[in-house]
Amino acid sequence: MLRSLSHLLGIEGLTRDEILFILDQAKPFQEFQRNPLKKLAALRGKSVALAFFESSTRTRISFATAAARLGADTMNLQAEASSLKKGESLSDTIRTIEAMRPDGFVIRHSSSGAAAFIAERVEVPVLNAGDGTHEHPTQALLDALTIRDRKGKLEGLNIAILGDIIHSRVARSNIHLLSKFGVRITLCGPPMWVPREFESMVPNIRRTTCIEEALRDADIVMVLRVQTERLHEPALAPEEYILRYQLTRERLRLARPDALVLHPGPMIRGLEIDPAVADGPQSAVLEQVTNGLAVRMALLYHLIGRAPLDAPHPAKDRSNASD
Length: 323
Ligand code: NCD
Hints:
It is a single chain. The chain is α/β, with parallel strands linked by helices and 323 residues long. The protein has two domains: 16-135 and 291-320, Aspartate/ornithine carbamoyltransferase (Rossmann fold, 3-Layer(aba) Sandwich), CATH 3.40.50.1370; 137-286, Rossmann fold, CATH 3.40.50.1370. It has helices at residues 16-32, 58-69, 90-98, 114-119, 137-151, 169-179, 211-215, 238-245, 249-252, 275-278, 285-303, and strands at residues 47-52, 73-78, 104-109, 126-131, 158-162, 184-188, 205-208, 220-223, 260-262. The strands form two sheets. A five-stranded parallel beta sheet has the order 7-6-5-8-9. A four-stranded parallel beta sheet has the order 2-1-3-4. Helix 1 (16-32) crosses helix 11 and helix 5 crosses helix 11. The protein is globular. The two termini are 36 Å apart. 44% of the residues are buried.
């Protein structure tokens, strides 16, 4: 039996059926993005607080657009321009926003566990838009939607995840999600970024420092952003990283001929990925962005609209069109 989710804090605690439900609900919202009129009334009268304590481009715009396309209003907190800079605590900031009666929170924060901390303190649903190095569940869901669209399934695929795994909430959420569907996962990067603990995180996972080995037989190649500020040690100088780990066209040939290339963005062209690969025929980077809207619409609709699991789909039900 599916339960209605009250928050979306991470992928780890979701079941396969819950993940499939979200992906299936996102499907009609994918079609919907192609409509000339992109506005529904499903969340009319609702307000979504977008509390981004850490900078973000695509995730913030994606959530704001998803809310607007469902007819909701947004309340925006921007860390750079908020009282946080004046020393206010996280719980005071959240309680202040809550006093303005939002119907849900979307949270991005640099501390792992911040979304769960807030979920314990507010009465309304909380969606985690990335907390520290912990999880980024909507990113993993949009990646899964992209993979399932292109490959027709998740089960039995091989994925290589390349780069700074230990600091990546995107990697962590994807590992949890994909392992629930029996995807075989190979992590690859400099040894300090792919420590041994990952071998016991989920079944069917291995690690290597050799990119050629990681790419062999891969159906999916996920490239993570390299945070340039971490490239300070001699063994990790940018030139060294490029030489050993950049996804180049030549290296991509080691993967399956129809292997799909994913990157959550922001992408540092010429560092972790060769621009020819980023813009090449195997790249699904922009499709990921479009799918992000569909996944976030599905989640906002179910969590904030508290829609019954068997409600008619708003992108199919004409009574939901906005006037
Ligand atoms: C990621 C993030 O912020 O976790 N970006 C995103 O949300 N698409 C990845 C990153 O910043 O490297």
